[in-house]
Every structure is written in C-alpha cells, then in structure tokens.
Amino acid sequence: MNITKICCIGAGYVGGPTMAVIAQKCPHIQVTVVDMNVERIQAWNDADVHNIPIYEPGLAAVVAEARGRNLFFSTDVDQAIEEADAIFISVNTPTKTYGKGKNMAADLKYIELCARQIARVAKNDKIVIEKSTLPVRTAEAIKSILDSTGNGVQFQILSNPEFLAEGTAVTDLLQPDRILIGGETSEAGEKAIAALVAVYANWVPQDKILTTNVWSSELSKLTANAFLAQRISSINALSELCEKTGADVTEVSRAIGMDSRIGAKFLKASVGFGGSCFQKDILNLVYIAKSYGLTEVADYWEQVIIMNDHQKRRFANKIVQTLYNTVAGKKIAFLGWAFKKDTNDTRESAAIYVADDLINEQAELAVYDPKVSETKVLQDLNYLQSRTADENQAAISYFDSAYQACQGAHAVAILTEWDEFTDYDWQKIYDGMQKPAFLFDGRNILNAAAMEAIGFVYSGIGVVSSE
Ligand code: NAD
Ligand code: UDX
Questions:
Q1: What is the Å distance from ligand 1's center to 9 Cα?
Q2: Which of 35, 147, 192, 258 is found 20 to 30 A from 315 (Cα to Cα)?
Q3: Catalytic (active site) residue 277
Q4: Over 90: is that where the pLDDT of 465 sits?
Q5: Counting beta carbons within 10 angstroms of the beta carbon of residue 401, is it exposed (0 to 12), middle (13 to 18) or buried (19 or more)?
C-alpha cells in the first residue's frame, strides 16, 4: 500500500499546518485540505500568503512553497475524499455544551459527520486517520459507521494524534519529539501503519516513529496533555505558597527543574494555562474515568482544572485588592489577549476570564495584543454570556499600540508573554500612568527590581509583591 493522495478534513490550527508540512516534505504526494468553512478556505487560498487564516511563525513560507504544487485547499469535501488513499480527520472536538456529558465529554458530532460522509462517498479502500484528539475507543465507533454501508469498501482506521503546540507548530512538525501511530494488530492494520510510517519517514528519523495499538495511541494523547497541564497547575499551586512565604517560584522552578528526573520544561508559573486543548482534554479524561466508575482517577485529574480556575480568579482578585479593593471606573490596560505568545488563537485564554471578573467589578479595560483583533476580543467575552454585547463593548477599549492602551491607566496587567513586551520603554509607560502605577505581571517576564526602580508597584506570580 502506497499513499499518493491525501485528503485532510478540517483546515484549522492542526489540519492546515500539519498538511502544509507533509506537502512540503513529500512533493510526490498530493495533499488536499478541505473544510466546510468557505471563508477559511478562501483565506488559505489568498493570493497574499500572509493572509492565511492562522498565524504561526514560518508557516506562510511553507504554504508558499507547496501551495498550488501539491498542496490544495478546497471546499469540495466529497471530491477530495473520493480521490484520496488516506483521509486525515482533523476536525474540532470541543467540550460538549449540551445533553449527557455537558461541560465534560468531547463533542464528537463533527467526527461522526466525517465518518458518515466518508462512508457515503468512498468507492475504493481507504486508510482513515484520526488526527483530532479523541476519547479512547473512538476508532471503534468510526469503524462501525464506515463498515455499515456493506458496499465492500475496506477501511483501516489509524490513530495519529498531533502533538504540535501553537506558536511553534512549524518547528514542532519539522522536528517532532515523536510521531505516534496506532493501528489494528492484523495484517491489514500493519500494512496501513507501514503506509503512514512511510509518509513521515520522508523527514522524521525512523526511531522517532512509534507504533502502538489504536487504544494506546488514543489514550496517550489525552495523557500527554494531562501531564503537561498538571505540571503547570502544580507550579501554579506552589506560586500561591511562595507569595505567602517569601520563596520565589522562579527560583523554586529552577531548583527542581535541574533534577533530571523532573526536567526544566513546563514549570513556568503563570496567570493560568489556556488554549483549546488542555482543559478540554482533561475534562474528557475525567469524563471517561467517571464513565468507567473510576471516581478517584477522575477526581485526581479534575484537580488540575480546579487549580487552573483558581489561578485565573486569584490574579483578578489580586488586582482588585491591590487597587484598594475597588476597580470601578478605573482604567486597566491588558497587554496580551492570546493564550500564549506567537499565536492569534485566544481559545480559553486566561485573559478572557480575568477580563470577565474585572468587568464584573466595573473596571474599564484597555486591550492591546499584537495579533488579536478587537472583534475577537469582544466575541470571546460575548461567548461567556456574562452580560450583553453592548455592555462588553462599553467596558472594553481596544488599541493598536501598547503605549496608547497604558496611557492614563491605573494599572497594567500582562496576560501573554509576547517578546515585544520586554523591550518596551517602561519608563515612558510609567510616566503616562496614574500614580501609584500598578503593574501585574501574569507571566513573570519583566525584571521586578528594574520596574520598582522606575517607580511601579510591581506584582509578579509567585513572588512577594513590592507593596
Ligand atoms: P479548529 O477548530 O481550528 O479546526 C477544525 C476545522 O474543522 C474547522 O475549520 C471546521 O470548520 C472544520 N470542520 C468541522 N467539521 C467538519 C466537517 N464535517 N467537514 C469539513 N470541515 C469540518 O480545530 P483545531 O485546533 O485544528 O483542532 C482539531 C483537532 O486537533 C481537535 O481534536 C484538537 O483537540 C486537536 N489538536 C489541536 C491542537 C491545537 O494546538 N490546536 C493540537 C493537537 C491536537
Ligand atoms: C498543548 C500541548 O503542548 C501540545 O503538545 C498539544 O498538541 C496541544 O496542547 P498548546 O496549547 O498549543 O499545546 O500550547 P502550550 O505551549 O502547551 O501552552 C498551553 C498553555 O499553558 C498556554 O496558555 C501557556 O501559556 C501555558 N503554560 C505553558 C504555562 O503557563 N506555563 C508553562 O510552563 C508552559
């Protein structure tokens, strides 16, 4: 079995970059990325490659190289399915907002629609690849739908979860820590696995391509995200203790991170983790554990989310308390809205929840983010349904410059660790603010002593504040 034509359903943060890199590294394979979102596909096809819908460092260049050669973006899902030997399903699997498993389980309606569409359209044998993050044993449901047509077409289901992180998607895809491929332990399953291994082997060393059974692969993805998020909640829990005891969380992180058994990565205390994956995937894990009656397992992982919610709320409370217990009518500048630097993605960004709490306290927020638009900021707040859209609009002003956003502010809060924030002329920002000028560094990116020397009342995460 030789894969020469790939179709990817879902042109989002995963489907777009992943397929662009496959196309760049495999010029002999035709890759068609399809989506039902017409605007998104138009943006991927925009003549100016800088207008593609996803901002990722290095992505525009990869798309520019492969697009029109062997990389295509289309809304014709049926045609792409029909032509392909291998179909990646890379659609969204958000937390359910209704019915059984509401606010916990993954909503698999888009996955099921894809499976039904493939079943309806396919005329020859296909490898169907789960690229989306899915609950363990989803492949069983997909297979049952695909096999239900009775038209003799054979399907092999593989699980090939994606481990890229946003903001570093292109380098993560070019130099992955590992590629994980799970498949059936039958002869046909092994052939399908080998075909997909051959695609990745065009640029990934063989020893980094790991093959497992389907269930291990599906569960490993949820597990990886749960472990990563757990590290952040663990260090954030300790950041609160540091603030009470005079220990400095950055020093604690460095001290424990040098233990090779612990490792230095993912130990940055912050205002709380965001992004479309961590919360959704842990909730899903909790739901799966509960559905098997594993209460202790479920409770254990749920605590990671509880701690993260606490960290976001704690940051907002600290701003209110420090500003003499009232922020009503006070201007608070928000530097950063994205859930991390180098992305325009705001899903589950801590900024949204901190803003929501402060608007409840009648603060006036002045927002600046290098990559996030005003429309997106308002959409994010409206999505919470805490108040009317008009009320959100009235509470938010949006600026194209951080200096303007901070002008006349009582406080500045850093929500995202954009590199440019460290290069600012903080004396100039201080000069334009109300006094005392408060600075809340939700990412510990500024030098506390330097900020205090300017005159700021500086407050980082996990350090005793200067007050
Ligand atoms: P996304 O929302 O950016 O993109 C999904 C796309 O699928 C959307 O454009 C949507 O229009 C399209 N779609 C949905 N149903 C469709 C259908 N039936 N036909 C055609 N198009 C359809 O989502 P994403 O961030 O790319 O995530 C996709 C999956 O990858 C999720 O399961 C997620 O958990 C997982 N994942 C995401 C990341 C990440 O960093 N974002 C990393 C690893 C894994
Ligand atoms: C995550 C996983 O890292 C990736 O492997 C998976 O495929 C998708 O989910 P992503 O959410 O894109 O990737 O970004 P990540 O770098 O993991 O950051 C997630 C959140 O944690 C961000 O809000 C980030 O600011 C925060 N974070 C990360 C911390 O607060 N401290 C850290 O030490 C690391």
A1: 9
A2: 258
A3: yes
A4: no
A5: exposed
* CA-closest residue to ligand 2 atom 6: 163
Q: What is the spatial distance between Cα 357 and Cα 362, in angstroms, rounded to a whole number? A: 9
Tell me if 42 is assigned to a ligand binding site. Answer: no
197-226 pLDDT, tens digit each: 999 999 999 999 999 999 999 999 999 999
Annotated ligand binding at 14? The verdict is yes
Please indicate whether residue 380, judged by its CB atom, sits closer than 6 Å to ligand 1: no
Q: What is the DSSP letter of 3?
A: -
| Contacts (Cβ under 8 Å, ≥6 apart) of 427 | 454
Nearest CA-CA partner of 454 in 324, 464, 435: 435
CA of 59 to the centre of ligand 1 (A): 17
Q: Which pair of tokens denotes residue 235? A: 């260090």
Whether 272 contacts 312, CB under 8 Å: yes
Q: Is 413 in the pocket of ligand 1 (CB under 6 A)?
A: no
- Token pair for 159: 């699980």
Distance 33 CA to ligand 2 centre (A): 25
What pLDDT does 466 receive?
54
Query: Which amino acid type is present at position 302?
Result: E
Q: What is the pTM of this model?
A: 0.96
pLDDT interval class at 464 (50, 70, 90): confident
Rg (CA), the chain: 24
- CATH number belonging to the domain at 278-459, selected among 3.30.420.40, 3.90.230.10, 3.30.930.10, 3.40.50.720: 3.40.50.720
5-204 classified as CATH 3.40.50.720 = yes
Report whether residue 81 contacts ligand 1, using a CB cutoff of 6 Å. Answer: no
Could you state, in order of their start, the residue ranges of all structural domains in the chain? 5-204, 278-459
